[in-house]
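> example.struct
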């Protein structure tokens, strides 16, 4: 009994350390706010790249599907209790504030929980926020690949005395240009106006 308790304590400590190191890895992988305005990543750090996923209608998509359009990319999951709904609402409101410019932006919600987030689950979820929002999922391997490309941290965590799990994950909004390259990185908690202003500013200089 004592050994089992010790093992669980050690497991919890490992999970906490992994979460902290994942967040620290993202912040120290070339973060340089001055280079991209309100939030950004150093030009020497590659963020984004090719991906092959499935949308909420079950249709295969790749990064080339959206080439020629601006993209606001957010990683999360449908069972997320707090930050994901907040950030998706911010994206929807920012698109409204962009007016006609918002029509050139496609908002992508990429799940980090492919086990539960099927195309059907995503279809029901994204329509709660905005008809323009596109939900993307795939195999665990495909999600791992796109998460690595975007330097996204995520990990499955089962709270104590719970029979279900949550996903610990980084929570940034990526603005990708029509060429598929990173233009800006917005931290969680920014307002819809700040997000819209940041997108508009990057559009004006591209």
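> example.seq
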């Amino acid at each position: 009994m004592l050994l089992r308790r010790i093992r669980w304590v050690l497991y919890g400590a490992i999970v906490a350390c992994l979460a902290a190191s994942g967040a620290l890895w993202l912040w120290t992988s070339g973060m340089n706010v001055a280079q991209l305005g309100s939030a950004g990543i150093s030009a020497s750090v590659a963020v984004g790249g090719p991906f092959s996923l499935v949308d909420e209608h079950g249709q295969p998509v790749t990064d080339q599907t959206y080439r020629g359009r601006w993209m606001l990319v957010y990683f999360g999951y449908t069972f997320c209790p707090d930050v994901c709904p907040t950030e998706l609402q911010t994206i929807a409101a920012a698109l409204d504030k962009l007016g006609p410019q918002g029509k050139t932006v496609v908002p992508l919600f990429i799940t980090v929980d492919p086990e539960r987030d099927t195309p059907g689950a995503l279809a029901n979820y994204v329509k709660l926020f905005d008809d323009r929002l596109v939900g993307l999922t795939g195999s665990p391997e495909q999600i791992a690949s796109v998460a690595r490309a975007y330097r996204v941290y995520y990990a499955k965590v089962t709270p104590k005395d719970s029979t279900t799990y949550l996903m610990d994950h980084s929570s940034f909004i990526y603005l990708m240009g029509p060429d598929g390259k990173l233009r800006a990185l917005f931290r969680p908690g920014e307002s819809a106006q700040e997000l819209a202003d940041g997108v508009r500013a990057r559009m004006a200089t591209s």
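> remarks
Residues 1-40 have pLDDT under 50 and may be disordered.
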